[in-house]
Fold:
Amino acid sequence: MRIGEDNLLIDAVRGAVDSYIRMINEAEKDDINGKGIIKPEWYYYIDPSNEDFVILLEVRGFQEEITLKKSEWKSYQSNMLGNEKIKQLANRWS
Structure:
């Protein structure tokens, strides 16, 4: 894939993670201070050895990592909103 195509796929993953974080934090009813469950600022990197997409989150004050294998994210057939690893974030609080 070319760099421009990679950027489109990276944007799809970022959009899905942002969407899930927003849904989870907005649905949180126990947090009267409105701090949310997952810190909205999160980071990622592409592992240079295998092109896995590594997501770094802060969940309830603890660091958490989600790794998407290259085959899970680097394809136009990938459905990031339907990705099971990302959906597990929401399933914990549903």
About this structure: Residues 3-91 form one domain.
